[in-house]
Amino acid sequence: MSTAGDAFAAALREDIDRLLAAEPEVRADAEDSVHQMRVATRRLRSVLRSYRELLAGKPATGMRAELKWLAGLLGEARDAEVRADRFATLLADHAERADPAELDAVTARLVEAERQHYRTAHDEVLAALDGARYRELREELSGWRTDPPLRPARAEAAAPEVFRKVLRRDLDRVDSLIRTEPTVDPRERVELLHEIRKSAKRLRYACEAAEQVLGDEAAERGDRAKKLQTVLGDHRDAVESHNAILDRAGEAVAAGENAGLYELLAAAEEAAAGRELSRYPATAAALFGTAVTG
C-alpha cells in the first residue's frame, strides 16, 4: 500500500506539470491558454489547501500566496476574455432587433472595450512571466516536482486513510454551506452561492488528486462536485454579465445614447441566471448521493 506522501507527491507532480506546460501557450497568446493556466494555478493552490496536513506549514503557505498572485493576474485577462465572448454572443442573438447604429455603439462599449481590456491584461501577464517573482515561483515549483516539503510523520501514513479524511472534510464544508443557504438574506444569497461553488470546486480537485488512491469512490464524487461547480459557475457568469451590462447602460445614458438594447441583453442574462439557479437544488442533492466511507 502506498504512503500518503508518495501518492500526494505523484498527484502534485501532475498539477505542477500542467501549470508549467501552459506557460509557453500563454506567451504565444494561444486560444484558451490564459484559461488553462489560470485553472492549473487555481487547481494547484486548491490541492495544497486541501492536503495541507501533509505539507510543512511555512513553505506551503508561501506557495499558496504566490499562486494566488499568479491566478489574480491571469484572472484579470481571463475575465475580460469571457465577458467579451459572452457579450458578442448575446449581441449576435439580438442583432436583428437592433438599429445598426445602436448595435455598433453597444458593441463598442461591451465587446470592443473588453477585448482591449484583455490585451492590456495579457500584456501585464507577459511582463509578470518575465519578472523575477514568477521566475522564483517556477523554480520552486520545479523543485517540488521531485521533492515537495512533506511532513515526514504524516507522509508515512496509509494513503487511503489520509485521502478519505481530506475528502470527508471538504465534503462537510460544502454541506455546511448548502445547509446555510436557505437561511440567509436574499441579498446575501448570490455571494453564498459563489462560496458554495468555490467549495465544490475545491472538493472536485481534492477528489481528482485522490483518484489513483481511491478509484471510483473519488472519481464519482468529483464528477458530482464538478456538476455543482458548473451550474453555480454558469449562474455567477450570468449574474456578473447582467450587472456589467447595466453599468454600461448607465454610461450610455449619461452619454445621451439609447439604452434599449442594453435592457434586452440584461433581461436575457437575468433569465439565464434564473435557469441555472433552477438546476442548483438537484445538483446539490446529487453531490451527497453516495457517502465517502471511513
- Main β-sheet, in a few words? none
Estimated share of beta-strand residues: under 5%
What overall form do the CA principal axes indicate?
globular
Oligomer: single chain
Question: Strand pairing plus helix content: what structural class?
Answer: mainly alpha
Q: Detail the poorly predicted runs.
A: 290-294
Which H/E pattern describes the elements?
A: HHHHHHHHHH
Per DSSP, the total helix count is 10
Number of strands: 0
For the CA atoms, what is the radius of gyration?
22 Å
The CA-CA distance between the termini, in Å, is: 17 Å
Binned, the helix content reads: over 70%
What's the overall average pLDDT, rounded? 95
Protein name: CHAD domain-containing protein
Task: Give a brief description.
The chain has 294 residues and is mostly helical. It has helices at residues 4-27, 33-50, 57-94, 100-129, 132-146, 152-155, 159-180, 186-214, 216-254, 260-287.
Account of the protein in words:
It holds the Pfam family CHAD. This is CHAD domain-containing protein. The chain is mostly helical and 294 residues long. The protein has ten helices and no strands. The two termini are 17 Å apart.
Keywords:
single chain, 294 residues, mainly alpha, 10 helices
Topology:
Blueprint: H1 4-27, H2 33-50, H3 57-94, H4 100-129, H5 132-146, H6 152-155, H7 159-180, H8 186-214, H9 216-254, H10 260-287
